[in-house]
Amino acid sequence: MAVLCPPTTYLPPIAKIASFSVTQLLDALTYLQSLYHPEVRGSRRKRVQAPVIDEEQNTCLRHDDNELQVIRFDTFERSYSIRWLTALIAQLEVWQDLPYSGEASLDDIGKPGPTFAHVEMIVQQAASLLAVCAGVAAAGMITRNFILGSIDGQRRVEAQLTDIPLDNDDYGSVGAQTWGGACVLAEMIVEDPERFGLGFSCGLESRRLNVLELGAGTGLVSLVVAKLLDTSPSFNHREVSVVATDFHPSVLANLRSNVSANFPCTHTSTRSITTHFLDWSSFSTAPRPDCLTYPFDVIFGADIIYEPQHAVWIRDCLKGLLRRPYDMSVPPAAFHLVMPLRPTHAFESSTVESVFLKACDVDPNSDADLVIVSKESITCDAHGDYMGGRGFGEDVEYVYYKIGWSNADIS
After folding, report:
1. Which 8-state DSSP code applies to residue 322?
2. In the chain, helix, strand, coil percent, each to 5?
3. What are phi and psi of 224, to 5 degrees?
4. Residues 302, 182: contact at Cβ < 8 Å?
């Protein structure tokens, strides 16, 4: 599939839709999905060795993203896609009277004469894409449904998030979009909550669990944590507070909208998820709101360091917000940070290890300080199945830091 072909070129002719097989129609829908409703770049962790792609193929696939953006926001091409989807759905109504033959099978979708199950499958995809093309996506907004599950199948979390257009005049609005780092961190949390201090609550029912996200953006990590704890038997009788923070006004407004969409009622007697403004640069001097006056047990940050001073500001925030060790019977608090290693921001990324020392380099008898407890490298496919199952021969590298107090047993 060549996603850089415009819809007017790639899609089957409207007048001949009825003559195309189910396989061809599903391929066309997959194409439109990748064009108008793409997954988040760099959000799919590698679990197996990716196939080797030769340089000629690699060059062909790694087109400038600007070309894709030109097609995606071309009003004529979007209009044509809407017309095509409308015509397809109309044709599907003609096929509705075909005999029912059970579930659609991959073995027979290439055969002529679609079954009722085939029609239902295509209708669902076409209707969803029509809503995207004709609805809010036309204004530069994208709404995605994220479904995250554990490998053993015991945990499953769903969240719906809306990305809004970036403010070209303000770099601080990057949080208006969902970035791969948030997807990676959210997936890791669902797979192994205990690793992040979210999987064990026995004997701690009397203590409220306080969770904070710095630079929450669209809110994926906070929403996933809140939903995960809401359904976890370990937290049935424990009070939980999740606070999602950000700085830019439009980002914060979208964050609140996403929280409301996923939690119409944000407060119960024992659970709450709230949003709040937080300016890292003035944290140590500005008055704190009530929701930031108590210590947090777990703090998250995903893709939040892209300026040289960010690591210093975050350290200052953590010193005032991350619970200090005072009771050895309580699991130590920690800050979990996932960040991409972008070539364009190599210096900014390096500031983490200059601001936070490694735990092994700190005198255990010295005063408590924030240190890097562990570090892990993560590799993701840049586009995953973005091209209908073919990778771009391009990886996105992330690093995961666990940061805590130097005099706490946080291993």
Report:
1. B
2. 40, 20, 40
3. -65, -45
4. yes
